[in-house]
Amino acid sequence: MSRVVGYSRPWWPGEDLTVDIENLAKAGATATPTDPGVVGGLMDDASPLHSLESGDVLLVSSAARLGSSLPRVVQVIADLGSRGIGFRSLTEPALSTDAGPADPAEVFAALEGLRRRLAGLRTRQGMLQAEAAGRRPGRPSVMTPDRVAVAEELRRQHRSIAHIARVIGVSPSAVQRALSVPA
């Protein structure tokens, strides 16, 4: 008798998996083990995926929960198949192995969508790590403290935003943001 087993794991520390687990239960998962210690990386030998048996079907909300790169996700799905375990994804149904052959165009579209989703998740994960380390992710502001001081002084002299921007060599929108002046 085959079981439909849900699976989830966090992408970043503290991620709430409640909604993910609820969606898997609504889709028919009889159990939903999680890998709370595995955050965005590789699964270890203690992963609940290793307890699946031939004939079971692994159900995930997105194949992105299986790994942080497209080759890793494909490897996990192939390993499951070699053990006789079916795979079903709620977000990428074309990648499901338990529903018969899918249209190749749909499979390629699902893989491309998954690749983009994984890139976005890795970016978000990196930004959270940078923020936790005290770094501000993103491009540094062109408005240095010296430029802000000059802009404030010129604004007190009732100069226009465009004039201030020309004097200090930045865009008018940078001056507006730095001085919190409405457009």
Description:
By secondary structure, this protein is mostly helical. It folds into 2 domains: 4-132, 3-Layer(aba) Sandwich (Rossmann fold), CATH 3.40.50; 145-179. The protein is 43% helix and 7% strand. The protein contains 6 helices and 3 strands. It has a 3-stranded parallel β-sheet, sandwiched between helices. α2 (70-82) links the parallel β2 (57-60) and β3. α4 packs antiparallel against α5 (161-168) and α5 packs across α6. The radius of gyration is 25 Å and the shape is elongated. The mean pLDDT is 87.
Brief rundown of the structure:
With 183 residues, the chain is mostly helical. Helix content is 43%, strand content 7%.
List the helices and strands and how they pair.
Elements: E1 4-7, H1 18-26, E2 57-60, H2 70-82, E3 86-89, H3 104-132, H4 145-156, H5 161-168, H6 172-179
Parallel strand pairs: 1-2, 2-3
Helix pairs in contact: 4-5, 5-6
List the defining traits of the structure above.
183 residues, mainly alpha, Rossmann fold, 2 domains, three-stranded parallel beta sheet, 3 strands
Main sheet characteristics: 3 strands, parallel
Supply the number of helical segments. Answer: 6
CATH architecture of the largest domain: 3-Layer(aba) Sandwich
Give unreliable regions as ranges.
none
Coarse morphology: elongated
Taken as a percent bin, the fraction of beta residues is 5-15%
- Kindly report the name of the CATH homologous superfamily of the largest domain: Resolvase, N-terminal catalytic domain
CATH class wording of the largest domain: Alpha Beta
Order of helices and strands: EHEHEHHHH
- Report the strand count: 3
Average residue pLDDT: 87
Helix residue percentage: 40-55%
